Amino acid sequence: MKNRAESVVEQSDTSISGETILVTGATAGIGRETAIALGRLGAHVIVHGRNEQRGTEVVSRLNSTAGSGSFIAADFATQEGVIELAETVRSEHDEISTLVNNAGGWFTEGRLTGSGIEYTFAVNHLAPFRLTYELLPVIAEGGGRVVTVASEAHRQGSMDFGAIRTVDEYSGWQAYCRSKLANILFTRELSRRLKAAPSEVTANTLHPGIVPGSGFLRNALLPIRALTRIATVLPDAIVGQIVDTPTDAAETSVYLVADESGSTHTGQYFVDESPTEPSEQATDERLAKRLWNRSAELTGIDPDYGLDGQTDTTSESHLDIRNPVREFTSPDPQANGE
Question: Which of 119, 160, 192, 229 could serve as a FRET partner for 287 with CA atoms 20 to 30 Å apart?
Fold first, then answer.
């Protein structure tokens, strides 16, 4: 079928049978379509989300494909939830081929987590930062891939470190743009460190598109929510000229998981399956290192990220990749991400 994500990106004949892939935020929208497409290619997909009923439905769909699925519930608004997810994955799987950091959200109301971190930054950036750290040993077993869903909205973001600890003059849009900028900076710095380790693991990020009805914009401003509701009832031929469907938006994620490009490229930002230059700020190496160290501090992990042999001029220590540290902060227990 032409409208399947894997068909559009010419991966329908690709087999990833035997591979285990974790897709976060996979019970609805882009994550759900990504998971099901990967199942059709033969993978076992670990479905992450908060809603067990939706998770069970996605697993049922996966089990009717060439692949299979399993569901793990976890709340990404807490570091404890992230760690518990990682521990469950590691206890059940010796190796995962790809981690797809898909979960995220846009929150209109400004609030801080229990540890005093701005909520959007905690969920959209610190959660995948910590999850990748926790799972890197099992990803590295097979020289796997880390794929992180960012957004073109990063071009309107600014890495204001002061805004990480306050909601004074809060803007949901700016907080979201900042978190997506952080996703790209994180991916580029992770890639740099992986190459220096050295490790065969690759890390890439992408822009999925704008998807009405995916659940992602449920916390957006009222005019935006109203526009997306209108889009959901318009004919596909019209909507397709304005916004993306969840299937459209899953295409680049599926491409980076299944295509050889996902292992030959690293540290890249993809739009429509093509490497694309991100904003000038997103390519600032000093800023990426500063964000990395700040993120490590906020999540309570060693900034070396377990990359034994990593060298850097920032005087960071070294830690064996097989022995991740366990300290964490505990943000607000409010939920995020389907």
Answer: 119
